[in-house]
Amino acid sequence: MQLGINPREKQGAVILDLVGRIVAGPECDALRAQIKELQAGGQKRIVLNMAEISRIDSTGIGMLVEAVINAVKLGGQLKLINLPRLVNNVLITHRLLQAFEIHATEEEALTSFAKASEPAA
Fold first, then answer.
1. Is 35 among the domain residues?
2. In whole angstroms, what is the distance from residue 86 CA to residue 50 CA?
3. pTM higher than 0.70, yes or no?
4. Considering its fold, how many domains does the chain have in total?
5. Is 67 in contact with 101 (CB distance < 8 Å)?
6. For residue range 14-72, what is the model confidence (pLDDT) as tens digits?
7. Does 70 reside within a domain?
8. Which of 9, 52, 63, 78 has an alpha carbon within 20 to 30 A of 36's alpha carbon?
9. CATH number for the domain including 106?
10. Is residue 120 part of a domain?
């Protein structure tokens, strides 16, 4: 099953609604390419909506870690939202939960971008 990637823009961010599996092969390759294309185009705010992800493997986790690292290197942010229990458990098992900025909802993630750009008092 191919990974469905449905991009949309909202409040200056690109949200990628993902459907299917993030596993080794064409699925990871497609998501990696989509994120790199956004970053190459100057997009610094990316949100991955994981609500419809049914499976993730170690290659998928590695690709997500790589995407977060690249986003930070480019002065941007990549956030995860709507983590299914399965994905959350995999991240806990691999002790990677803290490697990601995770929000329960799209609204929370979008608000956090605005807060991050506010000057410190």
1. yes
2. 11
3. yes
4. 1
5. no
6. 999 999 999 999 999 999 999 999 999 999 999 999 999 999 999 999 999 999 999 99
7. yes
8. 52
9. 3.30.750.24
10. no
